[in-house]
Automatic annotation (TrEMBL):
Keywords: Membrane, Transmembrane, Transmembrane helix
Organism: Aspergillus versicolor CBS 583.65
Positions of region (Disordered): 28-58
Record field: transmembrane: 116-136, 142-162, 231-251, 271-294
Stored InterPro entries: FA_desaturase_dom
Taxonomic superkingdom: Eukaryota
GO terms, biological process: lipid metabolic process
Lineage summary: Eukaryota, Fungi, Dikarya, Ascomycota, Pezizomycotina
Protein name: Fatty acid desaturase domain-containing protein
Pfam families: FA_desaturase
Residue stretches making up the Fatty acid desaturase domain: 141-356
Length: 432
């Protein structure tokens, strides 16, 4: 598969609309316009075939907004990650009727009506993960332990990005269900490898405050982002020391109460694991809690490395230039549009379904800021390709915008290489 011309049929409809729009711009750029943001703007101002006089951008934006608007006839809630609403039309009449009834009820229970899928997954976790964990503690079998761990490994990506929405929105269910919305993470988070409340304190109260800058404990700027040794140091620091460094960070910033809370929940989780291991059932504790924790800690840093591997050497403070956008199946179909990381950093409170339309509304700014948009690759594979220094493959995955359109493959590869260089102490002082 050549990532430069393959369009994955499993992309979500919004992803397909965005990708085709961006590719249309690149393919129809006039030579004198390719290096011009104004040219990028002009390329879209053509009448549509239906004679409405709207630009292709406006048509696509209106379509995306309609999909998200519960009052619009074209509204489509997300019910499952694997299938879209149109796929459900192929089901037998009885099954379709049951699902339609479920969707009607679920839309009244979730915080945002598009998010039926989150209730679907809560039901999934409480009917599989929770009973399986209880059974392992009551009657442990090695085969069951391994199967449980594999199941949780499959679940964790989607779950983590559901919780990502939860911590930014202050919940995912209607306000009337605040009690369950507040309680369920204390049950399901440890099963997926999250320590209690640590994701909230690290991600919302720390990472989004510092924005991959010098004081961000998960910042990539002081590392050479295509070197295995630097990557291992990066992962190792988080893996072994975040329990101490995060509370100390809050303490240095004068947030003593937050430092105490972060330390309390992190160390409290470790204490619970110690008790379960030594006094309850060490085998069950290993597969239910410890392996998911160790695995997720590595996974979070692999993902964050990919999200912030490319940092602009001229203006690293720009959210457009210190994060990237992915149009791919794993990130956006299965992980709540996690690929739109630039959009998320521009507005951390933006709902996940609004990222595609936001990108199109701001695509001139994306082009002007030399933002990076990739397709047919996820954050994990970006990290792997960087470790292999396979910049040509990464260049093939680039969806060119603005002056990137006129670059050769080698020029794109070299441009990407310049954005993975370590920032020296002098660079940090002068640019931040």
């Amino acid at each position: 598969m050549d990532p430069s011309n393959f369009i994955d049929p499993n992309l979500t409809e919004p992803d397909l609309l965005v990708l085709k729009n961006l590719l249309h711009d690149a393919e129809h750029a006039k030579p004198e316009e390719k290096n011009s943001v104004l040219g990028a703007r002009n390329r879209t101002k053509k009448p549509t075939q239906n004679g409405t006089g709207q630009s292709p951008d406006e048509d696509t934006i209106q379509k995306l907004k309609a999909l998200n608007n519960a009052q619009n006839a074209e509204f489509e809630p997300t019910v499952f990650v694997t299938w879209d609403v149109k796929d459900l039309e192929k089901l037998p009449k009885v099954v379709k009727s049951i699902l339609q009834s479920y969707v009607r009820v679920a839309r009244q229970l979730v915080r945002v009506e598009t998010d039926v899928v989150m209730l679907t997954h809560l039901i999934l976790y409480f009917t599989t993960s929770v009973p399986s964990a209880i059974l392992l503690f009551r009657n442990f079998h090695w085969a069951h332990g391994v199967a449980h761990w594999i199941m949780q490994t499959y679940y964790v990506g989607t779950y983590t990005l559901m919780m990502h929405q939860h911590i930014h929105m202050g919940g995912i269910l209607k306000k009337g269900l605040w009690w369950f919305d507040g309680v369920f993470p204390y049950i399901t988070n440890p099963l997926m490898g999250h320590t209690w409340n640590s994701y909230y304190y690290h991600h919302v109260k720390h990472h989004h405050v510092e924005g991959n800058g010098p004081d961000d404990l998960s910042s990539t700027i002081r590392y050479q982002r295509d070197e295995l040794g630097d990557f291992l140091c990066y992962v190792g620091r988080f893996f072994f020391f975040i329990w101490l460094e995060l509370p100390l960070y809050f303490f240095r910033k004068g947030k003593t109460a937050m430092a105490a809370k972060a330390a309390f929940w992190e160390l409290g989780n470790y204490l619970a694991l110690y008790v379960l291991w030594n006094y309850v059932n060490w085998k069950a504790t290993l597969f239910v809690f410890l392996l998911p924790l160790l695995q997720l800690r590595v996974g979070l840093m692999v993902g964050n490395w990919g999200q912030h591997a490319f940092v602009d050497e001229v203006d690293p403070n720009s959210d457009f230039r210190s994060s990237i956008t992915l149009i791919d199946v794993p990130s956006n179909r299965f992980c709540y549009n996690d690929g739109y990381h630039t959009s998320h950093h521009l507005n951390p409170l933006r709902h996940w379904r609004d990222h595609p339309v936001s990108l199109l509304q701001q695509k001139d700014r994306y082009a002007e800021e030399h933002a990076l948009v990739f397709r047919n690759i996820d954050y994990i594979m970006i990290t792997i390709r960087l470790m292999r220094k396979d910049y040509k493959y990464l260049a093939k995955c680039l969806v060119p915008m603005g002056d990137q359109v006129d670059m050769t493959l080698d020029e794109k590869a070299e441009m990407l290489r310049t954005k993975t260089k370590r920032f020296s102490d002098m660079d940090v002082k002068s640019k931040f």
